[in-house]
Amino acid sequence: MFDGWCRYFEHDAATTGTKMRFSVYLPPQHEGWQVPVLYWLSGLTCTEENFMIKAGAQRYAAEHGVMLVVPDTSPRNTGIPGEDTRYDMGSGAGFYLNATNEPWSKHYQMYDYVADELPKIIEEQFNARPDAASIFGHSMGGHGALVLSLRNPGKYRSVSAFSPICAPTQVAWGQQAFKNYLGEDTSTWSQYDAVALLEKAENPLPMLVDQGMDDEFLKEGLRVDLLEEVCQRRGHQLNLRMRPKYDHSYYFVASFIGEHISYHAGHLTQGGSEGV
Amino acid sequence: MFDGWCRYFEHDAATTGTKMRFSVYLPPQHEGWQVPVLYWLSGLTCTEENFMIKAGAQRYAAEHGVMLVVPDTSPRNTGIPGEDTRYDMGSGAGFYLNATNEPWSKHYQMYDYVADELPKIIEEQFNARPDAASIFGHSMGGHGALVLSLRNPGKYRSVSAFSPICAPTQVAWGQQAFKNYLGEDTSTWSQYDAVALLEKAENPLPMLVDQGMDDEFLKEGLRVDLLEEVCQRRGHQLNLRMRPKYDHSYYFVASFIGEHISYHAGHLTQGGSEGV
């Protein structure tokens, strides 16, 4: 695509103890040069494929010379009873956390997979710049991107989100998932809640967030109002763009993906890239 | 999307005697102004949805102020025995022709649907410029676009194709489909074969064609070499771009869709648009 390569991979993941899949877009600049990496985290029900097919991101990644990396949203085929029965639990719904509760804890270690295992593979095997990574995502993946950036200062140069689940501990689908993955003790939940983390954060990365105003999940499931409130109160930098008439779909993501990639490229392409 | 609207419709079609579906992208300029129309014809197995999801075309249509119209690739649910059993016959495989053979002839009238019925609806109900239409497509839809433009001089301002089935009467999937749709008398087949039509055409529209060189259907199913040969011999204008390393997929289409839409926009936006 666009003189680069869109490729799909599967590998044995140590963190999850399962096969894991991810997709990459290698921009034309990757031939002979280390390229910066932009991680995309997808939403509920998605695989590593949806973003690559629907977001129209490759054109912008090619323009800016940025590599895209898109993990699947959960382990699959773990044998856990009921893993495929709900759209918001189990397969396609890993919530980018490390489960501590049985039966999920054995495989559902998406936080470690995305924070550590996957970047290591990308840096070692794909000619990626080890000093230049950013992260963004959609819905559950917007939650993941915000949480990963808040808990790993210095790991990412920039963060952004489309329609993120901002406060999973305060909304039904998050509470239901966290209870299953993390157990009844709610004191452990806040480490995976962007609004809760921002309550205590010092100097978090500025956040770029786009939110459709006709998004059917806005009021009950996403709660960007809580994100805005904590950022205003604590003085955190949030560039929140409320988009009239847009919904929760990839049509919305596609409409503004170019602006997000430009934003990240502005941070990622500072500093020299080494020829290899 | 991109400040315009991506919309899906279903209606009772007179030509096919069935419900037919199509999608449109209305660019932001459609509010208050008549916009030119660019018809996209999709390939085998597609519905009206694939292009809208996968091609990344809306961004360019918004930039140029061009409306996109994408019909489904066949009637559906006709009750014809076996209509859903093959990927290259029946549902998803209308081949943009008027079937004359039983049992297909009653419903499979895609040529008339795309050439006449659909444009009438678009012009009457979508604030489209009646004097500015162009057409393009992919694979079976590239065949459709070339055939429709060749048989309807003056109807379209420009035509282009990705990986078109150039000579369906000379390749297996075309012969199989035409035998079923048109009957054993092969003399009627050439009216739906771009290479055969170009043999006799006088002053056809210039053709812009992109073809991936790693396309798995190139040698057996598409035969762009025959298109090139007849155009060279007859002196028809063909801008054929052979693209190394690209395959037959929408990843390929997405990579060059912007160039095609710019090409059509150059023809479509000549002449004044009227405020309404």
Automatic annotation (TrEMBL), chains A, B:
GO cellular component: cytosol
Domain of life from the UniProt record: Bacteria
Alphabetical keyword list: Hydrolase, Serine esterase
Hydrolase among keywords: yes
Keyword Hydrolase included in the entry's annotation: yes
GO process annotations (BP): formaldehyde catabolic process
Catalytic activity: S-formylglutathione + H2O = formate + glutathione + H(+)
One Pfam family, short name: Esterase
Name this protein carries in UniProt: S-formylglutathione hydrolase
